[in-house]
Amino acid sequence: MPRVNRTAVLSLLIVSSCVFLLFQLHYYRKYVTKQQGGPLLSPVHHLTNRAVQWQVLKKFLALAHHFHLPLFLADTLALSLLSQHALRQRDRVVQEPQCSVLCTDRPVLAFGVHASSWESTPEFVAAAQTKGFELLELRGKDPRLSSLDTLSGEEIPLHFLFRLDGYIIHVVFLYERSGNYLWHGPLRLRADMDRTFAPFSLLDYGRYAGAYDRPELILTVLDRLDVRVPRNITHFLVQQRDARFLECRFHEARHFLQLYPDDSSAAALDFRRKARTLLRVTTQTLGLLHIPFWISSGTCLGWFRQCGVISYSQDVDIGIFISDFRPDIVGAFREAGLSLKHKFGKVEDSLELSFLSQDVKLDIFFFYEDGDVVWNGGTQAKSGRKFKYTFPRFSLCWAELLELKVRVPCETQDYVVANYGSTWSVPLKNWDWKSSPSNVQENGEWPRGQWAELIQVY
Ligand SMILES: *[C@@H]1O[C@H](CO)[C@@H](O)[C@H](O)[C@H]1NC(C)=O
Question: Main location per UniProt (predicted)?
Fold first, then answer.
């Protein structure tokens, strides 16, 4: 019996210590590991961040709502998420986490606001500060007041950055410009400003000034918050990519016009008026066909040098990439009331179209991309001689000319210098397109048998 008892006691002891050991192991796994490893698991961490971000947004949007401030979502990342989101939701219903569109992985969210609606809510900033938001205000000269006559330019708000709990809400101020478009200024930090206030390199807006068509907005609910968004998000994002705007160089232009005063004769004024009409019709016609164009040759020189048109040039010059050519261009301009004056070359080589509107000529040069240069062709009708004008590659920017929003090569000076040489700033009335340009080259002749097709003069 005692022997049995001893075995039983021993077994009991072994079993109970095993149970205790298991219990310890279980306890360790269940509580201790979780306490140490829990916060390091990314989904938990993520949700916490998003919850904070969402609270900041909620606070800010509630303030905007209270002050009737019509902010609209302009953040490229959130808008792309939103458009993908809309597509996904069409396919299946997904269990959405807390804040899936407005809380991006960036600690920044951008909103646009029409400057005029901001001006009517001066209490907004103080109210935001009361709620704990810190503010960095970036102001700049009002370009609508700078012109050839005055360069004073009052300071206007351009970008406001509101910061709370490590999140930045970037408010971009949009101003109406006379060419019927919206403009925002560049974001430039003054020397005395805090460079660590925000991750400036992550901002969508402010590297350059930008120009936009007025977006149509709709009010919607995103992540349980009321938010205005552009109705056509794709369209807005496409515009955002190519929105860079160049201000005319008023200071240099004024200097130029002091040296070479503008022609104010009736004929010159008449040309300016007609050139403006022609440029407006061109913008509308090519806009309907979705063909981008830029002002070229003398028209580009006029903008760059004197913020206007060169009245003795008597024509308007534009460039179009040949990849954007569409055969219905001619028909579209005819419908707009212009007559085709000549057509030189062919789509594969040196295409050039010329239209007449009243007595002002519109020259359309098609540009061909070739390695690190682009070129356009010229044709002398009476001899069939071909010419080639070569430019360094360029990208396109918006600019304003004669109160119209037009594109110019962003690298405008390189473009102008290529065409007119280093003396571009000196007016030259005796200009010969076959010999004067710095970048002209002889390029052979069209075969006589093809003249009827390649040299059409009306
Ligand atoms: C939205 O914009 C895109 C790009 O500009 C355009 O292709 C599309 O037709 C537009 N959609 C609507 C519904 O207007």
Answer: membrane
